[in-house]
Amino acid sequence: MSEENKKDLTEQVEDSKISFKDLSKKGKSSRFDKITTLVLLLICIALALYVIFGTVTVKAPEAVSTVTETSINVSVETAEPGLFQRFTRLNGEIGSDNSDVSVLPDTSGTVSSVLVRRGDSVAKDQVIAYIDPSRPGQSYKESPVTSPVDGIITAIPVSIGETVSASTPVATISGDKTLYIEASLPERYTGTAEVGMSAYFTSVAYPGEQFEARLSFISPSVNTANRTSDIELEIVSGAEKLKEGMFVTIDLVTEEQDGVITVPSSSLTSVLDGSIVYTVVDGKAVRTPVETGSSNDTRTVITSGIEPGDTIITAGTVSDGSSVNIL
Q1: Which of these, 15, 226, 246, 302, is most buried using a 10 Å CB contact count?
Q2: Do β-strands 127-132 and 179-186 pair in parallel, antiparallel, or remain unpaired?
Q3: Are residues 8 and 124 in the same domain?
Q4: Where are the beta strands (DSSP E) in 34-100?
């Protein structure tokens, strides 16, 4: 091939290359345009859907509404001067100043008749039985056996026909008795106990019923075995219902203060520098430091920090400044 032909062929190849590149560029531009068009179309669809279904109306800002604070329900009581008592619980037993009376005949002989039964009430000098003092071959008038006291027949240990002597009891009578309570007071309370102190007591025989008593005797000595002193209490109310030997539970008043302010012990909160209660002032809970005195199982004396008429929160979980709603 001549040099001229070779040159022509080379030029044709180069021309072909240029055409292929141009074609390739043109194809790439076409794909890009398609992708761009698709993206724009999707954006337009999304905007249309947003306008149709998700329109948001923007309003001018309004005044901020006031948030109502939640009030806490509480129970309260008004502080008033009154009587405070502290009790010591003891166990005791009903005793009596009279023992049962045994009725003895005036003579020996045979019991010819018994005129009473157990449980019968008898009066002093009332005939309750007869004794026949006769001997074989001799006949004597029957001797009456009379009651030495008013009371109730509690036992008849003999029967008709039985031979008795002048020392054989024919009957036992429980006379009118003055009942009292016997108990033991622990040594630690003997320094504060005084004759005349009030007491309240209960018996299982009368559930829910409370009787009154009064301390009438304190032994001057202490039992070294159990470190207690014997005491007696006069029964003030309910004696007609009680029986000798009954077991009772006693609340002896070992401290009494009148005209003092007290609060439920459960309303007090202990803090590092003492105690506090919460009072109500203008519908708010106010943390109020107080000084305390004596206390019993339910109440505590307030010596300072509370004035008559103050409203004390007795139930409800509050803090200083809490809004409260009094139930």
Answers
A1: 302
A2: unpaired
A3: no
A4: 72-78, 81-96
Which has the closest alpha carbon to 155: 102, 98, 94, 96? 102
pLDDT at 284 over 80: yes
> CA 177, CA 172: separation in Å to the nearest integer?
15
Residue 18 has pLDDT above 70, yes or no: no
Structure tokens at 304: 């300072």
Distance CA 153, CA 155 (A): 6
* Structural domain contains residue 217: yes
The answer to whether residue 66 is domain-embedded is no
Beta bridge partners of 203: 248
Do 308 and 189 belong to one domain? no
Give the pLDDT band (50/70/90) at residue 2.
low
Q: Enumerate helices (H) and strands (E) in the chain, giving the number of each.
A: 1, 21
DSSP code of residue 59: P
Residue type, 263: V
- Find the domain containing 206 and state its range: 87-96+177-257
Q: What's the domain count of the chain?
A: 4
Residue 108 Cα distances to 101, 142, 158, 172, angstroms: 19, 11, 13, 18
Q: Do β-strands 324-326 and 72-78 pair in parallel, antiparallel, or remain unpaired?
A: parallel
The distance between the two most distant Cα atoms of the chain, rounded to a whole number of Å, is 200
Total-model pTM: 0.55
Angle at 120 between CA 115 and CA 234, to 5 degrees: 140
pLDDT tens figures, 301-318: 999 999 999 999 999 999
Look up the CATH number of the domain holding residue 214: 2.40.30.170
Residues 170 and 195 in one domain: no
Residue 67: phi and psi, rounded to 5, are -85, 125
